[in-house]
Design a protein that fits this description.
Layout: E1 2-9, H1 13-24, E2 30-33, H2 43-46, E3 50-51, H3 58-73, E4 85-89, H4 92-107, E5 113-116, H5 118-124, E6 135-139, E7 143-144, H6 147-160, E8 164-166, E9 173-177, E10 180-185, E11 190-198, H7 204-210, E12 218-228, E13 239-242, E14 248-253, E15 264-272, H8 289-301, H9 303-306, E16 309-310, E17 316-322, E18 329-332, E19 338-342, H10 352-365, H11 379-383
Helix pairs in contact: 1-6, 1-10, 3-10
Amino acid sequence: MKTAEIVIIGGGVVGASIAYHLSERGVRDILILERESEQGKGSTGKATGGVRAQFETEINILLSLYSLEFFASCHFDCGYEPAGYLFFATTQEQLDYLERNVATQLGLGVRDVSVIDTDAIREIVPGMNCEDVLGGTFGARDGFIDPLAVMRGFSAGAFGRGAKIAFNSPALSINVIGGKIRSVTTPDQMIECGKVVLCTGAWARELAATAGIELPVEAIRRQIVWARCKNELPDHLPMVIDIGTGFHFRPARDFNDPDSSKGRSRRDILFAYPDPAETPSATTSFDDAFIGKVYERARHRAAFLGEAEVVREKCRAGLYEVTPDHHAVLGDSGVAGLYLANGFSGHGVMHSPATGRALSEIIVDGTCSFMDVSSLHIDRFAEGKLLHETAFI
């Protein structure tokens, strides 16, 4: 029987970050179980790579502040580009909401975020239709990262300090005896261990159930249209988000093609929105009907979006792992030795540095000391202490 001190189930960016931070703390006997033949085939590889501190809740803002600082100063190239996030409002209620959020963000130490008027929005996004826009907010330190580069940087650091990874090794069950973790079963073997970190994204709920844990995480498809504009995009185009509908657009970058001018094109753009017609499922096929839906919003918002030609082979769909309150589940589970890092609701990549450090401290020290993450504990669902965040896309 194979043995390991800690088994991390899931080799995406979250699992890699946890391994990296544990190894920084001196833990060496770490085994990552990855279901695919290589890392980055799941949600990490489908992510658009946005990172922002413009959230509503204190915990998300603090997770972002730590992670942004990490991306700006880490020892590996993560592709951090502070191009900004622009949220815009089309009703007074939405604008009031954004203004309240900025006050909260500033109070928690977010820098370079402000409320802006319609003229400023026109200047930041030339060609955008602002006839129905009342104003918005802009965070200059928000921006973009390369999800695969982040995952690889964390992995290299962990592997360099002794962590190992097993590919084509999906976990089938987490085995508990007497309320304690004993082993993990894969198709090929049983791995004896004292600690398990569950971070398998959309597949976490079923695995948690094998350990007797009811994890309120559901998979839901998110689709992204890749299009090519007739002319070059405006310089320094940020992520632009309609706070009312969730429709958003940003310059496209192919993270799987880093050698082609760093995967960039001055005419390629991504746009999407959270389709309310989507129901929970593990479907990852792209539905062509989504193109028409998103183009309705694109045509209204800017001529350069509406006239852009779809690059069908680059359109994609991935899975969000969502919780009832759209916040992550972090921490211990109630089963001795089982730790959870799940339900990021689209924020797993951007919050991966803070998540990795938080879990490493909880596992090694018994508590997270650099930040209070107790509001993300799984018990909040049973206790009715759900968090509230409107600005999820």
